[in-house]
Structures are given as structure tokens and as C-alpha cells.
Amino acid sequence: MSTACSVPTEPGKTTLLRILATVLGSDGGSVEALGLDPSTGDGRLALRRRLGYLPQEPGYHRQFTAFEFVDYVAILKEWADRGPRHNEARRVLSLVGLESVMNRRIRSLSGGMRRRLGIAQAMIGRPDLLVLDEPTAGLDPEQRLRFRELLGTEASGSTVLLSTHQTDDVAALCERVVVLLEGTVRYAGATSGLVAMAENRVWLAAERDTRAQLAWVTGDGKVRHIGDPPAGAHLVEPTVEDGYLLLAGRADTDREALAS
Fold first, then answer.
1. How are the residues of the chain apportioned to helix, strand and coil, as percentages rounded to the nearest 5?
2. What is the CATH number of the domain that holds 103?
């Protein structure tokens, strides 16, 4: 499985994902996915046949049951034979733990269940490319762990592009990460490289240091700082979130410099 993550803070990433998923056309530039150009009719059709897409806000037919919705999406994906199509619908619903509620109407499902239903429909047919916009939003920790396991097994042969604000998902899932800040790519590369950006720039102290770029109180009562540490600071191992926060802070500084 090849997995790339986008960590965004402002509009732009959803538009990009929608272009890749052939939902929108681009105003300029070019995009290629799986060697196909979605701006052409033939490229768009070929890509849709190999694509699984979870939008940030799926549009559900709330009168449908969970099974009927997945079955409907399978029809749109050209599963014409009813028997295999129904088997596939049951398979993907089972993958996300919804087999026991597959005959309930979508309007009666919880937000987390509806999110899992969106993941299920994206997995129909084991697509070559999965484009997932905020796939773990609304999922509890156990469900998020199950989602990670799902990608590691069912999507092991696929390319996965996901957008998330959950930096622990990035650390657990992604080989490469792209940080988008206000429509500008601030980092693109290995996840480890984003972590390395915060190397020797994260420290713990008993009190807040006003010289830090960012600081917050941790669960054990100590204050975690990010920035340029003072001499003798108790440095700690950085995380993906630390690297991201440093980039976000740098973007804020750049904006202030431009404004002045």
C-alpha cells in the first residue's frame, strides 16, 4: 500500500481531492492519477472505474437502508450482476462493522456509523486508488484503529490519498505527507522528514516559557514547548504534530511579514 496524507488548515485540499476524484474540473494546470488525465472524457471514465472516493460530506439518500445505499453505489460502479453485487455490498459493510445494522435506514444511524458507511462504499471492488477526505472524522478511538487495520489489509495493493487533521493518523498510516497551509504546499516528503523538522526544538518545563513559539500543558502537568529552546532545556522526542505546528507557526510569521 502506498499512502500519502494531506494535512490542511484552510480551504483548497477538498477542491484538490474532488478534482482527483473527477467530481470537479480544474480551472488551470494539470492533474494525473494512475497515469490517467481526469480532464478528458476517456481518462475520467477509466479513472472512475478504478477509484474509491469518500467525500468530506457524503450525500446520503436517508430513506435508503445502509445496504441499499452501498448497493446503489455498486450499481453506479457498473456492478450489473445482482448476486455478486449484493455479496460485495455485504462484504464491505462487514469490513466496517455494519453488518448488524445493514437493514436500518441511514437516518437512524449515528454519525460514526454514517462515516463508516462512507468508508464502506469507497472500498467497493478493491479500487486501485482510494481518495479519502477526513475518513476518521467522527470515529471513536477503537473505530479509528479498525480503520487503520482495514487500510493495512484490504487496501494493501492500493494507492491511498487521505486528508486529515488527525496527526496520529498521519504517523500511523502515511509514508508521505503534504502539508497545505492556505493553499500553499509548505512541506512534501517522508513523514519522518516532517518529524525531523522539530528535532531539538521541543522541550518540557515546569512553567510556560514566553519565548516558545507554542506551549501547552500536558496530562502530567508539565508544559510542552515548541520553538528555539533555552540553554539547558529538557529536550524531548518530536512528533508529527510538532513538525506540523512549527510549519503552521512559520506560515503565520510569513503572513505578518507580508502584511507589514
1. 40, 20, 40
2. 3.40.50.300
Residue numbers of the domain that contains 129: 2-189
In the block, residue with C-alpha cell 513523514: 191
Neighbour-count burial for 217-244, b at 16+ CB within 10 Å, e otherwise = eeeeeebbbbbebeeebeeeebbbbbbb
CB atoms closer than 10 angstroms to residue 79: 18
Same domain flag for 78 and 174: yes
pLDDT digits (tens, 9 = 90+) for 180-229: 887 788 899 999 999 999 999 999 999 999 989 999 999 999 999 999 99
Looking at the fold, whether 197 and 101 belong to one and the same domain comes out as no
Q: pLDDT tens digit string along 80-117?
A: 999 999 999 999 999 999 999 999 999 999 999 999 99
